[in-house]
Amino acid sequence: MNEPERSELERLKQRHTRLEQELSLLGAELASLQSRLEVSPFASATADHPVAAPVSTPPAEPARDVPQMPLPIPPIIRPLDSPVEASTGATIQTNRTTDNATDPQESPAATPNVPCVTAPVSADASPLPERSSLEMRLGTYWLVRIGVVMLLTGLVFFGNYAYQNFVVRFGPLGKVVLLYLASGLLLAAGLWWQRNSLKESLRNYAQVLFAGGLAAVYFTTYAAHHFENLRVIENALLDGVLLLAWAGFMVWIADRKKSEVLALFAVGLAYYTSVITRVGSFTLYSNLVLTLAAVFFLVRNRWAGISWASLVATYAAYAWWRFFHGGEGWRWAGADEGLWFGASFLYGYWLIFTVAVFLSKHENIAGERRAAFLTFNNGAMFTLFVLTMLQVDTGKFWLFSLVYGVVLLALAEASRRFLSAEPITKNAYLTQGLLLVTLGFVAKFSGLQLALVLAAESVVLFVLGTQRKNLVLQFGAYITGALAVAWGIDGLERNDTRGLWLGTTLGALTAFNAFWAHRQTAVENRDLLRPVPAYFVVLAQVIWLATTSFNTSADNTPLVLAIIALALTASIHVLRVREFAVLGQGFLLLAHLVWLSRHVGFTATPPWWNPILLLAITLGLSHWWQRQKVVESAAAFGVGCQIAFALALVGVACVWLEPLMSAPHWLAITSLLAVAATAYGVFTRAWPLAVSAQLFLVLSLGQFALQLWHGRPAWWFSAAPIAALGLLSAATVRWFARRPDARPQVREPLLQLAMVYRWLALVMSLWCVEEYVPARERIWVLMALGFAIFLLAGRQRNREALLFGAAFTVAGLTLFWWPPHRDLLVYAPNLLAMIALLVQQQLARRQSERYGLDERVHSAVIVIGALSVWRFVWCWVLNSAGTDYLTASWSLLALALFAVGIVVRERMYRWVGLAVLATALARVVVIDVWKLETIYRVLSFMALGIVLLVLGFIYIKFEDRIRRWL
């Protein structure tokens, strides 16, 4: 039996064993399932149905004694045919003995009793709802709508045909009679349907039809004068009276039938009559009557819809009468047209609707709707009167606004007494009255005088509003306070002492509101910023800021703003209004922004005391927020202020000091500032300052890159940022080494940052070597630095230092393999550097407990070092003797590498030596045999042959030993 057959036999045996084990496990599972079924609740469900006795399964034998047989075919489980069995729910079905007897391939032992559980079928399961039929959808929805469209289209065509063929033959009187006849038919149909309809919906339809008939009569009367081809009434006043009379009749009918629809039609048509009949003051008088009618309906029948319609129509009709002038079109009222005749009617409309506000009891004119009603009434009257007044008499506007505002305030008091259940009405009148009074003040006064009046009004309103707990008065205080500040800023002038004092006083009045609001909310509200005090504090600060900018010089503005911030912060110890201190920090930030905007990019430097005082105030406020306990809820805000102030300190220091120094000195100073500011922040526990001090370091790094890219400062200036990085990194590591209990969320990020600093210092050091070391010396210098750091890393057992040394070594190797010129490479110190690299590998090998390098690293170092030596020999031979001795030198080098590998017991040396030897062999075959002179060709072959022989002898001589080394 050959080897493949043995393997196949072994595979089949293993498969046979697996199948026997699986069959044994399957039998055990079937037996367990059968035992559970015998005691399951399904047995009672099948008591009325005889079930074949279960066939017992013999116990499983050991796998080695089971005879080989094919796997049994499972029995076919047929569905139940009996509906009775299906209705009993879950039915257990077992294999019948007759099936076992008729199937010769099935043995009793191989056919266990397997139950089959059929899903229960619900006898009363409801069917799914049928989807809507397309036919029913068309019949009940679309056909009706399509039919209406078709009918209307037919009526349009019929009307057009009748007009072109019959109606045009009648004169004006005949056409008017036809229109009245059609209107009468509508009235009769609506009246008959109203009396004989039982369904409420049909009665509403009949009511609309009847109202349409009344409207048709009205418009027929209107057409009898205004349409040329229907004109039978020549006098416009007569037509207007007839129209108004018919509208009155409609009003009487509506009141008698208690129909708001009819009343709405009647009043609307009456207003239409008053508009189109431009005869004298007919519009004004008819509007007055209609206004009374609408209010009458509102009070008697509580028809709010008519009141709203009348409210809009009355003022719209007045605007039509006042500003539309027939053929002239729309224009403003002229001075010769007078003001008070039309205004008297306008006052009458307003008074009637105001009475309606107090007399209405309908829910549609109640609450917010009542407030909206009166607001529209007041606003419409004011707007229409002012639009006329601006063209006729503008000198008394302030007086009208004040008087009207006072009247509205009186109505607010009346609302408080007579409509006490609806405070929104009182508030609406109060708001509008305050607005008009304020507007009167604005129209009368100007500049800072107006600002002071409004500020005083704001104080009065706010005090009264808080005492009476009236939100409208308080809101009025907010508005007038903002207006006071706006007008105060508008009235300021440059270097005006009077403006300085008025602006300061205006800010003080607004600040009083903030103090008053603080007294009201000091106990219940502990938030950092309370809305009301913060609002007035912002207003005060805005006017103080504007006053400061108008009355200080450009150079001193930042310092004055910083002093204001200091004063506002100190005020918390007197006034206890924390919003002054919190929001006052904005002055300090603004001071820094203004200072930077005035000095960034400018060569002129400020006096030395100016930035020093600004820095001192900023530093003092930063420490105040660090240590203060007055504002309890300002911990997070205080940290934010410290961060902002620290950034501002860095910005001012950089902008101030940079123009005073040369570029190299600035490079060193920024590094010194980074170390000093960090140390100060750590010493005083001002952590935001310590963090922000790193911006000095970032600036120093930028200067380092910029200056080394465009020039070469003295090496000690370039070494400053490297030293700063190293010092800060070492200090951080030492700090946390002494504090092992420091929070991990603080320690870990800072240690990571320290590591970044070290690697930045490494990169900068490499750059400095590139810039300050001559090109011929760079390779061995980098390799020597790498070797020195390697020794230090082994002494301190520091893995990171080992990586640093590797970085210098890799940089040196990079220059070695890609030099600018071959002459720079062939230099004895470079060869010593490559040999030193191989020495490092052996030191690491023999002191593995200090270095712990991976075997792959050792192999890589040997390969790179040996190849570097090969490259050096290659270039040296080319420079010294040309290509004639190249193959011989490679052969000797290969022998030397092999010998070193034998001595130090490193097989990688042998492999590299063999690779060099293979390269020499290839060169002999491909190049030397064809291009070299005979003597050099012989030399190449001889050297290569000798080396091969020596190596062969060594392998034969020391076969066992080399095998063990492998």
Overview of this structure, please?
76% of the residues lie in helices and 0% in strands. It is an all-alpha fold. The radius of gyration is 53 Å and the shape is elongated. The model is unreliable at 40-160 (pLDDT under 50).
Keyword list:
966 residues, mainly alpha, 38 helices, 0% strand
Tell me briefly what this model is.
This protein has 966 residues and is mainly α. The protein contains 38 helices and no strands.
Sequence-ordered SSE layout with sheet pairings:
Elements: H1 3-38, H2 42-45, H3 83-87, H4 97-102, H5 134-165, H6 172-196, H7 200-226, H8 236-257, H9 260-276, H10 282-301, H11 304-323, H12 340-359, H13 368-392, H14 397-418, H15 423-444, H16 447-468, H17 471-491, H18 497-521, H19 531-551, H20 557-570, H21 578-599, H22 609-627, H23 635-657, H24 663-683, H25 687-692, H26 694-710, H27 715-738, H28 744-772, H29 778-796, H30 799-817, H31 822-825, H32 828-846, H33 848-851, H34 855-880, H35 886-904, H36 907-931, H37 934-957, H38 959-965
Helix pairs in contact: 6-7, 7-8, 7-9, 8-9, 9-10, 9-11, 10-11, 10-12, 11-12, 11-13, 12-13, 13-15, 14-15, 15-16, 15-17, 16-17, 16-18, 17-18, 17-19, 18-19, 19-21, 20-21, 20-22, 21-23, 22-23, 24-26, 24-27, 26-27, 27-28, 29-30, 29-32, 32-34, 34-35, 34-36, 35-36, 35-37, 36-37
Poorly predicted ranges: 40-160
Q: Give the tally of β-strands.
A: 0
Instruction: Report the mean per-residue pLDDT as an integer.
Output: 75
Give me the number of helical elements.
38
Principal-axes geometry comes out as elongated
Helix/strand-derived category reads mainly alpha
Rg, nearest Å: 53 Å
Strand portion:
under 5%
Major β-sheet profile? none
